[in-house]
Amino acid sequence: MSGPLIEYVPLIVGVVVAVGTALGMLVLNAMLGPKRTNPSKPLPFECGNTAAGPARNRFHVKYYLVALVFLVFDVEAVFLLPWAVEYRRLLESPVLGGLVLLEALLFVAVLAVGLLYVWKRDALRLD
């Protein structure tokens, strides 16, 4: 094998190894694994409790709202952590340090206004 196809050999070897490993595990499990049947095995399992109701129940929209608010503040932490790490270096320039501090305070203020809005509308109450 020569020419431009030689570049694909590592990719092909990797795919063959991955598929072979997966198939090998499945075959070994089927041959060596325990085969204890029980009438309760195919039933849905919910932390030791029997399933109550259908799996497609509707949830109140406030659960999703709480999840979104959590995500917003999680992303805020992701953005503020690198800022906090680099802030000491940015303080070497008085103009740049003040500008970066103002931007961070504005970012936190916008998120605080959003949280205040959600809080005043009682959107975080799950009852």
Question: Which labels suit this protein?
Answer:
single chain, about 130 residues, mainly alpha, 3 helices, about 65% helix, flat
Helix content: 55-70%
Listing every helix as H and every strand as E from the N terminus to the C terminus, the arrangement reads HHH
The CA-CA distance between the termini, in Å, is 68 Å
The largest β sheet comes out as:
none
List the topology elements.
Layout: H1 9-32, H2 61-90, H3 94-120
Task: Give a summary of the structure in a few sentences.
The chain has helices at 9-32, 61-90, 94-120. The chain has 127 residues and is mainly alpha-helical.
Verbal overview:
The chain is mainly alpha-helical and 127 residues long. The chain contains three helices and no strands. It has a domain at 61-120. Helices cover 64% and strands 0% of the residues. It is flat, with a radius of gyration of 27 Å. The chain starts with 8 loop residues before the first helix and ends in a 7-residue tail after the last helix.
